[in-house]
Each structure stands twice: as structure tokens, then as C-alpha cells.
Amino acid sequence: MRLHFSRGVLTITVIVLVLAVAVTVGLYNLLKKAEPFTVATEGCVVETPSGTLTLEVEQAQISATIAAVAARRKLPERAVVIAYATALQESKLYNLNHGDRDSLGVFQQRPSQGWGKPKQLTDPVYATNKFFAALVKVKGYLKMPLADAAQAVQRSAGGYAYAPHEPDAEILAAAFTGRVPKALHCTYLPGKASKPPVQAEAARKQLSRALGSTAITTQKRGWLVAAWSVAHAKKYGLRRVGYGGAQWSADPVSDGWKAGGKGTATQVDLS
Length: 271
Description:
The protein is α+β, with helices and mostly antiparallel strands. The chain has one domain (43-270). Helices cover 44% and strands 10% of the residues. The strands form two sheets. It has a four-stranded antiparallel β-sheet, with helices on one face. Helix 2 packs antiparallel against helix 9 (219-231).
């Protein structure tokens, strides 16, 4: 049996097919223009020639603080690597208010063992200073295996556990000490509340607790200050950090440092 269609039905069918093709082509072109499409999430990325790490904001802030304290004490990068590996094992770079028995803070130091009062040990600047003060007393710590140096300070039940963190610790040290420029990028999502006002002076004051003078005397120190500022940008309402001809933006769609900005060789611009 043969089916017969009226001219009107055929016309409608053709129109529907044409519209379907047009919509499909239109959607394809829109998606193509939008590539690559990513959903912004809050957090930080460290990129160095040795590798890439993703961090939560608190981890980036702790990392920046450890590097700043080391710079104030004029310690070599190896000391920073040891500190990072220790903190990664003890707290995963978080400022914990709990731990095994009475252990507290980034390095899980115990008040009962003379490290300090609970309030002091949950201050990352204080805790880091205490760690480095103990580390430099370890004879030959710069030449011994990392796990041995960390264990000499921590005296933990499993000193061998520090060694696996050494590669990640080296990546963090290269970025946060400022040896590798533009290594830290953080993404901050806008909150429901109104944006906090820029508190550049408050940021510099807090940085000075860890670093001492915030004067930029070398390019490496400048990038240390820049990395610390990026890690703390949301806390202090910073939208841009500029240094050495480059600028970081807090814009969620930004993908890192760009050329430009008001920063100079001797000043990190915060705005």
C-alpha cells in the first residue's frame, strides 16, 4: 500500500527539518566559541618546572607563612623544604586545633612537651618559628636525609613518614620562597555579601609578623611577597597584586599572571 502526503504536510516537514538543523548548527557554534569551558572553583595552583600542585586557600596561606618566617630567619631553601614535608605529614598544611593527645597546629606541636601554650601553637607564625629554632640546632641538618632532619625535631612515632613528601615540598619551596616567579595562582569566588574593602596596609602589617621588613631588596624577595599577597588576597579584599611587570587578578575567570600592573622591581602593588 502506498502512502500519499499532501503538499501542506510535506512543506511543514521540510520547515521542521530546516529549523532543527539551524538550531543544531547554532548551538554547536556557541559551544565552540565557549571552549575551553570550565567551572571556576576556589583554590590555588602552584606551577614550577618541577611540577604542579593544587592547594586549598588555607594550605596556600600556611605555605606562604612558612616561607616568610624562613626568609626572616635567613634560612636556606633546604630548611623550607624540610618544614613543608613535616607540615604535610603532620597536618596536611592546615592549622589544626586538635591532634594526637595534646598535639596542635601546623606542626602538631605539644604543649606538654614544652613547645608553647595552645594559643601560641595555633598561631602559624609562632609555630613555624619554634620549628625552625629547633631545626637549626640539629647538627648537619642541611646534609642529612630529610626524614632524619624532620624526625630530629619532631621525635614522632613514625619518622620515616616524612620522606614521601619531599617532592611536593620542593615544589612548594620553589614557589613560595620566590625562587620561581609567578608560580602561585589563586581563584576566589565572589561571596554573597558585598566585597570587603581593600586592606592593603593590614595585609602588609600581617606579613611583617612573619617576614619582618616588607622592603623588596631582591627579586626573589619580591616574588615571595607577591605569593604571600595572592594567598591572602580574599582575606584582605585584594583584587590585584602586581610585581616585576606582571599582575595577578582575583577575577574568577583569570588564568594566572598577565603582563602589566603597577608593581615595580622594588614594590609589590596591592589594590
